[in-house]
Write a structure and sequence with these properties.
175 residues; alpha/beta; TIM Barrel; seven-stranded parallel beta sheet
Amino acid sequence: MYGYELFFEADQRQPNEPQSRPSPAELIDFACKEISSLVGTRRAFINLTRDVILSGCCDRLPATRVALEVLEDVPTDADVIAELTRLARLGYQIALDDFVPMPARTRLVDLAYIVKIDVLATGNRSLGDLAHELGSFDVRLLAEKIETKDTLRLAERLGFDYFQGFFLGRPTSEW
């Protein structure tokens, strides 16, 4: 077990009640305060939107306890790349979520420690090609959506380092 992916879900309110969303700083502060109770001694994978990346708050998190997971819909503009470069230089692990090889996303691979690939969305042949292509980078590959033993074995044969999916365990909301 390498780590846990943390998800934040807004309060479930009645339709006529206003919904408030915590700011990036509030989410980061909560994660800092509760990290040990949330993930024990493991690493916390924290999903980042563009707003959270550019909030300047990510470096409040303990670099040795988190992986900063860049969501697939985050644009790779100069500001995002500059901030992720700064965070990587500070020792933060950068994880790329649902990686698909496109020029804009490939620019982030040099900053990444972990590249997560959705094995269900990527065909078996393409999965092998992508694993081979990413083998030339200094990254760890994580196979997402492992739902069967056969898929796990395939990902192992292709050289993936980490595995995530319902076959291995179901998410909980115990906290």
